[in-house]
Amino acid sequence: MVQGDNMDMEFTDFYDILRENLNSYRGEYERIVDYAPDLFRLLSDLLQSRDIQREDRLMICAAMGYLVAPNDIIPEEIFGPHGYIDDVYLCSVVIDELAGRMGYRFLEEYWSGDEDLESVVEECISRTSEILGDKRSSVLEYTGLR
């Protein structure tokens, strides 16, 4: 057990940080970027499953790492909530690839969102692809997924 001076501190989960950052956003891409916390939580929770293979774990970790990368293709520090569009795209693509191997039924067991996961992923991929255009390949290359 690790002992330290700050053991009584309360830490905030990254999911909660995402939720807080996006909670007050109202704008053109609100519906899409609002999915970011739930997509992150799904990916994080999937890592707890023994059914996730090594290759899939690496893909999941790449998407989660991209969410926290400060200088990704559309940085949140510069673009605010719009900066999550590329993150949502990548998470959705990874989830869709996982679903292709494992099925949405399996993924739904780990999904805490209010809406149907497959519908959310389809909407996110469609909408973010439209917004990102040619930048989609840059997002995938940044993470080494293409």
Automatic annotation (TrEMBL):
Membrane listed as a keyword: yes
Location (main, coarse): membrane
Domain DUF1232: 57-91
Keywords tagged on the record: Membrane, Transmembrane, Transmembrane helix
Keyword Membrane applies: yes
Pfam families for this protein: DUF1232 (PF06803)
Subcellular location: Endomembrane system
GO cellular component, one term: endomembrane system
Membrane topology listed for this record: Multi-pass membrane protein
Protein name: Uncharacterized membrane protein YkvA (DUF1232 family)
Organism the protein comes from: Methanothermobacter defluvii
